C-alpha cells in the first residue's frame, strides 16, 4: 500500500504558459451517483484519467470505459464503489504495473508541508541491511541531522543497531518498530567483530520532534591537496528553501579558487528539479540558451501542449528564484559520489550534466527514478492541481491527495532511460567496517575521488570487508522520500 499520510514530496518547478481561460480544462466526464459516497474515488479517477503518465496503458482509465450515459454512470458508480478504501482503490484499480512511485495521502495539508523538508523526526538518518540467509535486519547510521534530538545523543555515523526496545529487527517488524506511530524508541546497539554482529550493552533513546527542518547542505569545505583546490559538498536533499544558501556555498568555492568539485549525493534521494537546474548551473555554467532537460507527458496532455506551441524544454539558469546571480565554477569535469539511495533530482543532475561535461560517478548504481509527479487535490476548477493560493477552493469533504507520475525528463541528448539506475564509472561500495568520517581525507569514497583528481599514480586499493548493501533507508519513510514533483505545470489555460 502506497500511503504516506505524513507526506512525501520532492520539488520540480516548471514554468507556466498562459494562453486563455478557455484553452485548457479537463473535459467533462461521467459523474457517479451522488448518494454513493465515492467522491474521493471519483476525484482520484478523474485526475488520473487526464494527467497520469500511463493513462493509455491502464484499462480502467480508458476514455471510453464509462460513457456519459445513465448506464455509464451506473457502471462508473459501481466501479468506484468496488473498493471502499480510497487508498486501496488507488493502488489496485488505477496504477500501471510498472509504476513504482505514485502514491496517495489522506491529508493534503501534511503532505504539502513537506515541500520545505519539514517533518517529525529524531534526526537519525540510517540504512537497513538484511543479514545474509536470514530474516534478521540491522541498521547503520549514515549521518545525523544537526540540531536534532539524535545530535544530542551518544550516536554517530557508522554506529550499528540490531534491535528496538529490546526486540530484534526483522523483515516483518522493522517498519512498525522504527517508523510506527510511536514518537520515541530505544535502539539496541552492536559492534562488528570479525565480520559478525555482536550485541553490546549500549542503548540510545531517541525522540521524534515535530517541525524538524533539515538543511540539505550537510558539509561544505575546500580541500587543498596535490596542487588542487577541491570543493567538497555533501548535499542530502534538493530543498528549494535553501537555494540561496547553496549559491553562497558556490560563491565561497569560487572566491576560494576551487579548481575541482566532489559532489557527494550518496544520501540524497532527490527533490526540486528547479534546484537541480540551479546546482547544475553552479557547476557547469549559466548559458540560458543551453537545454538542461525536456519534459515528456502522456499522449493526451502532450498533444495539448504541442498544439499550443508550449516549449517543454528547461535551460541552465543564470539567477536563483530570488533573482540572485548564480555563482558558477564553469567546470569541465565533476566527481559525483553515489549509492543505491541516490535518486530522482540527484540522478537528473548527473544525466543533465552528462551532455556538457565529464561526469565521473564513483560509488554504486543509483536508484533509477526518472519520472516526476505533482500534488493533486479535489479542486476541479483548477484541474485538480494543488495550489497554496486555492486551499479555500478544495472540497471541504475531501482531504485526500494523490501524487501521480506525470512524465519523464530527458537530457539535451534525449536520454532518459535509466530506470535500472545510472552505473558508476568507478564502482565502490561503502564498507560497514570502515564507513569513515564525512569530509575526512581518508573516508574511502572521498579518498578515491581525490586520487582521481590528483592523478595519484599509486592509487590506494580500497577493499570492502562488509558492504553496506541497503534493503532500504530511513529516508524512504520520510516526507520527501524519492519523488520529484511539479509545483507549477506548463499549462495552457
UniProtKB/TrEMBL annotation:
PROSITE patterns: PDZ, PROKAR_LIPOPROTEIN. Transmembrane segments: none annotated. This is Peptidase family S41. GO terms for biological process: proteolysis; signal transduction. It comes from Pseudozobellia thermophila. One of its GO terms (molecular function) is endopeptidase activity. Pfam families: Pept_S41_N (PF18294), Peptidase_S41 (PF03572). Residues 1-21 form the signal peptide. The keyword Signal applies. Residues 108-189 form the PDZ domain. One of its GO terms (cellular component) is outer membrane-bounded periplasmic space. It comes from the Bacteria.
Amino acid at each position: 500500500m502506497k500511503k504516506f499520510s505524513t507526506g512525501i514530496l520532492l520539488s520540480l518547478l516548471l514554468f507556466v504558459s498562459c494562453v486563455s481561460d478557455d484553452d485548457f480544462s479537463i473535459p467533462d466526464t461521467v459523474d457517479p451517483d451522488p448518494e454513493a459516497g465515492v467522491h474521493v474515488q471519483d476525484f482520484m479517477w478523474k485526475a488520473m484519467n487526464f494527467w497520469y503518465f500511463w493513462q493509455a496503458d491502464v484499462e480502467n482509465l480508458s476514455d471510453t470505459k464509462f460513457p456519459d450515459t445513465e448506464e455509464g454512470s451506473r457502471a462508473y458508480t459501481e466501479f468506484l464503489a468496488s473498493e471502499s478504501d480510497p487508498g486501496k482503490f488507488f493502488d489496485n484499480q488505477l496504477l500501471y504495473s510498472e509504476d513504482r512511485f505514485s502514491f496517495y495521502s489522506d491529508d493534503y495539508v501534511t503532505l504539502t508541508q513537506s515541500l520545505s523538508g519539514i517533518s517529525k523526526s529524531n534526526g537519525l538518518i540510517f540504512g537497513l541491511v538484511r543479514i545474509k540467509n536470514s530474516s534478521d535486519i540491522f541498521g547503520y547510521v549514515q549521518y545525523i541531522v544537526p540540531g536534532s534530538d539524535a545530535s544530542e545523543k551518544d550516536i554517530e555515523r557508522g554506529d550499528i543497531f540490531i534491535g528496538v526496545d529490546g526486540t530484534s529487527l526483522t523483515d516483518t517488524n522493522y517498519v512498525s518498530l522504527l517508523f510506527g506511530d510511536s514518537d520515541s524508541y530505544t535502539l539496541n546497539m552492536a559492534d562488528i567483530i570479525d565480520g559478525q554482529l555482536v550485541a553490546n550493552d549500549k542503548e540510545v533513546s531517541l525522540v521524534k520532534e515535530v517541525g524538524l527542518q533539515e538543511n540539505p547542505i550537510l558539509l561544505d569545505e575546500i580541500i587543498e591537496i596535490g596542487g588542487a583546490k577541491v570543493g567538497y559538498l555533501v548535499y542530502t536533499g534538493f530543498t528549494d528553501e535553501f537555494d540561496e544558501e547553496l549559491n553562497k556555498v558556490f560563491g565561497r568555492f569560487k572566491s576560494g579558487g576551487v579548481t575541482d568539485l566532489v559532489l557527494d549525493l550518496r544520501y540524497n534521494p532527490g527533490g526540486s528539479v528547479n534546484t537541480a537546474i540551479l546546482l547544475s548551473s553552479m557547476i557547469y555554467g549559466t548559458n540560458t540558451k543551453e537545454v538542461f532537460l525536456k519534459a515528456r507527458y502522456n499522449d493526451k496532455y502532450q498533444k495539448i501542449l504541442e498544439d499550443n506551441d508550449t516549449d517543454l524544454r528547461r535551460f541552465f539558469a543564470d539567477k536563483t528564484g530570488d533573482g540572485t546571480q548564480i555563482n558558477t565554477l564553469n567546470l569541465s569535469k565533476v566527481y559525483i559520489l553515489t549509492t543505491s539511495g541516490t535518486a530522482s533530482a540527484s540522478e537528473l543532475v548527473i544525466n543533465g550534466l552528462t551532455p556538457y561535461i565529464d561526469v565521473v560517478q564513483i560509488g554504486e548504481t543509483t536508484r533509477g527514478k526518472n519520472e516526476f509527479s505533482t500534488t493533486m487535490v479535489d479542486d476541479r476548477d483548477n484541474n485538480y492541481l494543488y495550489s497554496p493560493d486555492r486551499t479555500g477552493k478544495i472540497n471541504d469533504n475531501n482531504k485526500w491527495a494523490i501524487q501521480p507520475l506525470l512524465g519523464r525528463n530527458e537530457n539535451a541528448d534525449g536520454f532518459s532511460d535509466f530506470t535500472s539506475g545510472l552505473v558508476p564509472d568507478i564502482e565502490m561500495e561503502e564498507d560497514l567496517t570502515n564507513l569513515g568520517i564525512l569530509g575526512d581525507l581518508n573516508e574511502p569514497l572521498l579518498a578515491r575521488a581525490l586520487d582521481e583528481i590528483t592523478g595519484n599514480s599509486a592509487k590506494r586499493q580500497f577493499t570492502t570487508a562488509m558492504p553496506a548493501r541497503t534493503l532500504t533507508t530511513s529516508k524512504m519513510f520520510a516526507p520527501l522520500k524519492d519523488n520529484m514533483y511539479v509545483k507549477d505545470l506548463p499549462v495552457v489555460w
